[in-house]
Amino acid sequence: MYPVQDASQIKAMISASEELQTNKPTTEIAGATVRLAGDSGDGMQLLGSQLTNTSALSGNDVATFPDFPAEIRAPRGTRAGVSGFQVQFASEEIFTPGDGLDALIAMNPAALLTNVQDLKERGILIVNEDSFASKDLKLAKSDRNPLDDASLSKYRLIKVPMTKLTRAAVEDLGMSTKLADRCRNFFAMGLVFWLYGRNLDPTMRFIDAKFGRKPEVAEANIRALKAGWNYGETTEALATSFHVNPAQLTPGTYKNIMGNQALVYGLIAASKLSGKDLFLGSYPITPASDILHELSQYKRFGVRTFQAEDEIAAVCSAIGAAFGGSMAITTSSGPGIALKAEGIGLGVMLELPMLIIDVQRGGPSTGLPTKTEQSDLLQVLFGRNGESPIPVIAAQSPADCFDVAQEAWRISTKLMTPVFILSDGYIANGSEPWRIPSEEDLKPITVTHPPAIAEGETFLPYQRDELLARPWALPGTPGLMHRIGGLEKEDLTGNVSYDPENHQHMTDVRSQKVANAAELIGDQTVQGPETGELLVLSWGGTYGACATAVQQCQNNGHSVAHAHLRWLNPFPKNLESILKSYRRVLIPELNMGQLKTLIRSQFLIEAIGFNKVQGKPFGVSELVHEIESVIA
Amino acid sequence: MSAELKVLSAADFGSDQDVRWCPGCGDYSILAQMKKVLPSLGVERENMVFVSGIGCSSRFPYYMNTYGLHSIHGRAPAFATGIKSTRRDLQVWVITGDGDGLSIGGNHLMHCIRRNLDVNIVMFNNSIYGLTKGQYSPTSPLGTVTKSTPRGSIDNPLSPCTVAVSSESTFVARSVDFHTKHLGATLKKAAQHKGVSFVEVNQNCNVFNDGAWSHMTDKDVKEDNVLVLEDGKPMIFGKNRDKGIQLNGLHPSVVSLENVKEDDLLFHDESAESPMHALLLSRMNFPEFPVPIGVFRSVDGPCYDEQLNNQVEEAVSESGEGDLMSLFHSGDTWNVE
Known about the structure:
The complex is a heterodimer.
Chain A: H1 7-16, E1 26-29, E2 31-39, H2 44-57, E3 61-67, E4 82-90, E5 101-106, H3 109-115, E6 119-128, H4 134-139, E7 156-160, H5 162-169, H6 177-181, H7 184-195, H8 201-211, H9 215-234, E8 241-244, E9 252-258, H10 259-274, E10 278-282, H11 289-295, E11 304-307, H12 311-324, E12 327-332, H13 334-350, E13 354-360, H14 377-382, E14 392-394, H15 400-415, E15 418-424, H16 425-429, E16 431-435, E17 483-485, H17 500-515, H18 518-521, E18 532-539, H19 543-555, E19 560-565, E20 567-569, H20 575-579, E21 582-589, H21 594-603, E22 608-611, H22 620-631
Parallel strand pairs in A: 1-8, 2-5, 5-6, 6-7, 10-11, 10-12, 12-13, 13-15, 14-15, 18-19, 18-21, 21-22
Antiparallel strand pairs in A: 2-4, 3-4, 9-16, 14-20
Helix pairs in contact in A: 1-8, 2-7, 5-9, 7-9, 8-9, 10-11, 10-15, 12-13, 19-22
Chain B: H1 27-37, E1 48-52, E2 67-70, H2 76-86, E3 91-97, H3 98-104, H4 106-114, E4 120-125, E5 128-129, E6 135-136, H5 160-166, E7 171-176, H6 180-192, E8 197-202, H7 214-217, H8 222-225, E9 226-228, E10 236-237, E11 243-248, E12 251-256, H9 276-282, E13 291-298, H10 304-319, H11 324-328, E14 334-336
Parallel strand pairs in B: 1-2, 1-3, 3-4, 4-8, 7-8, 9-13
Antiparallel strand pairs in B: 5-6, 7-13, 10-11, 11-12
Helix pairs in contact in B: 1-6, 2-10, 3-4
C-alpha cells in the first residue's frame, strides 16, 4: 500500500538530493545555544544528537547537555516526562553547552513551561502549536494557554502547526496518524537545520541506516525533515537564517564523542597498549550502563564483558580477572560503588591492578539517577573499612575520558593498585569534538610479570620495587604458586600475619605506595597569574564552566587564576605552594563541599566553597557572579 | 614435555603453612582427600587455583601449594567467574561453607551454577557458623538452639543439593567427611566433570555442632541411614542390604526387600536429562529416608566460560582482530586543516 517499497529507492532519493540552499538573507553569528524539549519518547535526544553531529561536521566546536527523566516513558504530556537536549555550537573554542538559550524548541506545553525560563530575552521560541489543546494544558497542569497571553512576549515566539504539517507531508504514504505523528521530531529538526544553515545529508544518511529496512518509515521521516526545512524557508515569521563559521581547532581529524564512548575507546586503547585483554564485570546502572553496552560490542579487541548478578559480583569477578592477568574493570554509579566497597577493599589488600569507574549521579540513595552531581568524591576516597587508600583520577570533559582511561591504567599497573576513575552523568552523556590521536600519540603501557622459578627457589609475592609495587605473578607460572587474601599479609611472603608491627608496616607501605603516584602524575598547572587575589580550584566535569568563567573574569581585569585537578588522590606535589600563592581559594563543586573539606584538612587553608546540587551543571554566569563577589 | 613430568604426591600439594583448624575438625579429612586426589588429575599445581570466601572452610586455599585466593564472605563464585572466564587453562576450585555459600553468598552460588561455569564447588556443610563461634546456619534444622537462637531456630533450613539442582547444576554430589574413600572418589568425579560441579560434604564441627552427622557416620547406624548412590543400580541400603527405595508416583518410599523385588526399586540414573530425579534425591531427608550420598546428577551442558571465549574468537574470525585506528575513524569524522 506504500508507494515506496524498496530501500534502493530511498538511497536513490538521498543521493539525488542536492544540498538545499536558502534564498533568504543569512546573519553571521559566533555561535548559539539551542535546547530541544519534548516528551521522553518524542525523539528529542535523537534530534539533539543529529543537530550536534551536523554542527560538528560543519566544523563548529560543540558541547552538549542531554537532560532526561529517570522514567522510560513518564505519562505523556506531563512535566515529569519532559526530555531535553541542549547544544552549543560556535566558531570559537567552547567548553560548556552554554548558559542562556538563544533558541528553544518546545514540542508541548510541559516542555515549554519547564524550560522557557532559561531562554534569553528576544530568544527564538519555536512551539508546536498543535499540542496546546486544553487536554495538553491540563496534562501540563497549566490553567491557561501561554500562547494566548502576554507571558511569552519577551521572546520571539514562532507558533508552528507541526502536527498538521507533518501529517500533510506524509499524507499519501497511507500511514496511520499515530505513525505519521512519530515523524514530528524530524519536522522540527528540518526547521532547526534551516534556522542554522545545516546540511541535511548526514541526517538523511542516518535515516537510511536506521530505517532502511522499513522504506516507508524512512521516506516519511525524510519528507518530514524536508517539510520542516521548507517551512523555515517560506514562513514569514523567520526573515533570516543564521550561519556559524567553522571553529579554529587544532588541526587534525575530529569526531563528535560522548563521555562514555570516549572512556570505552580509552579503555580499549589501554588494553591494546599494555597487551592485556580487557575484562569488564558490570551490573546495569544509570548513567554507567552504556560503557557495558559499548564494550560488549568490541569482542574482536579481545574484550570480555560479564553482566554479573549484582554489583558485588561485578567487582569480585573483575578482581578474579585481575588475579588471572587481565586488564580488569568494573563500572558503576554511586549506589553500586557503595555495594562494591568490601570488594574494592580486598583489591587494596591484594594489591592487584584494576580500574573502578564511578559515573556519578545525584545522591544519596537512588537519588537522581539521570542527573549529574560530584558527590561521590568522599565515598571513593574513604568509603571502605580500614586504612584503604586508592588513587583517584577525574575526567574533565567527554573527550578527556579517552586520556583518563589510559592514564589510570598506567598508574594502576605501575603501582599494582586499584584506581578509581570518576566521571559523571554530565560528562557521560555530553559530547564534544575529539581530536582522533595518531598511532604515535599513543604511548605503550609496559606491564611485566615475574618468570617461572625452579623447585626449591622462593618466590616472595609481597617483595616491592622502588615505587613499592609488588610483582604481578600469574597463575600458570611454574614455581610462583602463592596464596593471597583479605587477611593482613606478612611483609614479603604474603602469608597471613597478625603481628602488630607487621600490620603497622604494611599499612604504612600501602599508604606510601599510593602517595608515590605523585611521582608519576606530574605537576599541577595554572591558567592565569602565578600569584594574585583568587585561585579557582575545580575538579571533574565542572572544568568547562570554571575555565570559561575564569577567562571571562580575567578579561574583565580581575586577578584570578584557575587550577583544575585531574588527580584527587594523591594531589600533585606542587599543589600546596600554588594554593598558598593566592589570597583566597574558591572551590566550586556540584556537591556540598567535598574537595573543600579535603583541601582545608590537608593544607590548613581557608578555602571558600561554591556549592550546588540541583542535578544541573554550573552555568558560566553564576560562576562569574560568584568569583566577582568573592573578589569584591 | 609430559614425559618429563615429575610424579607428584599428596605432600607436593601441601603449602608450608601450619593448618589452624581445631583438632578433630572434619576439614582435615577433606584437605587430606583433596591432596590425595589432585595428583591423579594430570593437572600441574601451577594450573590450579583454589578460591574461597570467609569461614573455617575458606582457609583451605592457604594450605594448598597451588595458586589461591581467599576472598570475601560469600563471593568466591564471583571471583572464580572472573578467573575462569579469562583463564580457561586453569582448573578452578571454589571452597565454601553452608553459611558462606547459602546465606551471604546464596545469590552468587545460584548464578555461578546456572551459568554452568566450568569450576568445582565444594561446600563444607557443618550446619553451623564456626568461625563466628556458633550461630545457626541456613542448613541448621528447625529448632536448633545456638547463641543467637536460645529458644530454637524458627527458619526452615535449605538443602544444599536442592539449591544446586534447582539452579540447574550439571553435576551435583554429596559425600561425608568420615567416608574418606567415598569423599576422594566424589571429588575426583567432580574434577573430571566439564561444567559446574557442586559437591556438598557433610562435615563435623566438633566444637560447635558435634555429631550433626552422627547418624551418617556412627558405625552402628550409618549403613541403615545412608544410601550410597550407584549409577544404573537399584537403590538398596541397610546393614544387611535388605531395604530399598521405591517410587510411587512422585513419592519415594522405603521398602523392605522381603516384599519388593530389586527390579521394582528405583534405579539411579545420574545422567537423566530431567533434574527431577536428582531433585527427588535431594529431598530425601533423615530420619524419614536414608541420606543419599554419591553423584545425584551428571549431565553435559554448554559452559559460560567456553561460550564467552568462543564469542571472542568468532568476532575475531568474522571481522579480524580489532584495529584501534579504524575503530577511532569509524562513523562521521571531519578534518580541521
